[in-house]
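Folds vary. Our protein:
___
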Amino acid sequence: MTLALIDDDAEYSEFLTQFLREQQGIAVSRFDDSNALLAAPEAFSFDFYLVDLMLPGVNGVELIKILRRRTDAGVVVVSGRLGPEVFREVITAGADMYLVKPVQFEQVALAIAAVQRRVAKPSAADAVWKLDRNSGELIVPDGTRIQLSEADRQLLECFAQAGGEPVTREALLARLGREVPEGSEDDGLSATIYRLRRRIERATPTLVPLQSKSRVGYVFRAPLQLI
């Protein structure tokens, strides 16, 4: 695996790079400036990106948005910024996971492995997921049946009806019967999607094809059949 580490903390980056190379066998390229990454010929060719939010040049959130326009690679944020609004901002931009510094290197490695299971290309691209509306279960291609919450079921019905096309945040919120609170961007959708992903990941090692689509919403990148 090739990985780009974008962080201006030189000491942290050096030791994390050493750990990932020696303990995980990952080919790491370090960038202490987001502009340095974007100027590199291989900028959009990495298998994975570890991104800090407070960077010289383009800030971390904008960098994630740029990456999402050009690559489906895994993106994990490792940052000292806290708060639910930060979580929403980075997940909406297209990050797959958000870790708060200080964080152990082993936790970073586990996050990379978890996200890779989700974003790696499936061996059978046409494997069908099924949503059983009577039982309220999601049936994974490997046969696993996952009991869903009502919100989960509504979201998945929306994705099934979209037929693999992106679904806007507005459409998903309407399906859930929610509105964006006046004067606030915190509509809770990012957290709802995150909980759905985690529910599936805990039940099966199968790749979860639910991905964010920067500036649009979300997309379920696999056949999803209503039964």
Observations:
- DSSP finds eight helices and twelve strands in the chain.
- The mean pLDDT is 87.
